[in-house]
Amino acid sequence: MKIPPFTLERYFAKHEFSAKYLLSSSDCESLRLPELLEMASPEMRSSWENLQLGYTESQGHPLLLEETAKFHAGLSASNLLVAAPQENIFLLMEALLQPGDHVIAAFPGYQSLYEIARTIGCHVSMWEPDEEADWHFDLEKLAALIRPSTKLVVVNFPHNPTGYIPPQDEFDALIEMLRKKGIFLLSDEMYRFLEINPGATLTSACSNYERAFSLFGMSKTFGLAGLRIGWIATRHQPTLARMRELKDYTTICSSAPSEILSIIALQNKGAIIADQNARVGRNLALLEKFMTKYAHLFRWNRPRGGSICFPRMLGDESTLAFADLLVEEAGIMIAPSHVFDYGNQHFRIGFGRENFGEVLDVFGEYLDKKFKS
Ligand SMILES: Cc1ncc(COP(=O)(O)O)c(C=O)c1O
């Protein structure tokens, strides 16, 4: 498979573990192992302490499947496949798509959500939001992109990088549009439950549509990216069966410690999600003040959910050049829109981390110096 490099991940690989400050990470603050184990029930504590480090069940640990099914009303363990989120995107596209199929993907977006389809030999059209309308993804624009050969539509709400979430009735209308034509839907729900307005949580697509695949996992909302655990939920059994066959060629099964730790986290989901949301809320308030103070440099649409947003930099400087200087001179890493293949005027800010306020202060000092009049 001749797939191009993943530009965003390569940019992170360059800076994530050397930059002093990260201002663009999309995951929430990671939990520490003792903190997570503290939450374990006596049964799970014992499972952890007596864990045998052998192969695990390929589909996922039965308790993990039981917990994950709770996120997708009407579905059960038989509708799920556990694998790292990124791996699941790969498995799904490989299982579902053929060269020549037409795919429509929300864009800008997480590169694998369209690049894998392209590499398989699909024709990919981009469904772009309107920045002037609060990053709204317009259904009429989507309708205009649909062709007789359209096999799959890929969306991701809350959206990386803009933080956009459609209202539920628009999401329902999108599903109706696809249902009429039998088009599959990959709904990347990795940032679900990080909605700024808690009422904005969309129904998981797989609960409402028999041809939808919902992707969720431990990395973003739970702040447990290092576990590398996620899942796809769907009622489309033939595709799920093929994905299971393909997984034998990727990881075969998930890591045993990661599965147990994920079960512990999922059994405590209320507390973990509330804690992450409180942090995201505090950080967003700081970011609002920052954006007001620096309104002469940046314009932004306040995100509706997720832990990221995508401000525009005013003026002519490319955000790639700006980001390179910022990391070199102030040790702060941001992700310029170049890594999303989306021009050179935007950059992504991530506000899920505990030290966000501190990093924002350092960023402010840098801007004051750089743009002093
Ligand atoms: C929208 C989206 N989908 C999928 C992924 C992949 O998740 P993971 O890194 O847990 O494999 C990411 C990671 O950044 C993402 O932002």
TrEMBL record:
UniProt keyword terms in alphabetical order: Aminotransferase, Transferase
EC numbers: 2.6.1.-
Xref: InterPro entries: Aminotransferase_I/II_large, NHTrfase_class1_PyrdxlP-BS, PyrdxlP-dep_Trfase, PyrdxlP-dep_Trfase_major, PyrdxlP-dep_Trfase_small
Keyword Ubl conjugation: no
CDD domains: AAT_like
Ranges where the Aminotransferase class I/classII large domain occurs: 53-351
Superkingdom of the source species: Bacteria
Family annotation (Gene3D superfamilies): Aspartate Aminotransferase, domain 1, Type I PLP-dependent aspartate aminotransferase-like (Major domain)
Known cofactor(s): pyridoxal 5'-phosphate
EC main group: transferase
A UniProt-annotated Pfam family: Aminotran_1_2
GO MF annotation, one: transaminase activity
Record-annotated membrane-spanning stretches: none
Family: Belongs to the class-I pyridoxal-phosphate-dependent aminotransferase family.
Protein name per its UniProtKB record: Aminotransferase
Originating species: Candidatus Desulfolinea nitratireducens
UniProt lineage: Bacteria, Bacillati, Chloroflexota, Anaerolineae, Anaerolineales
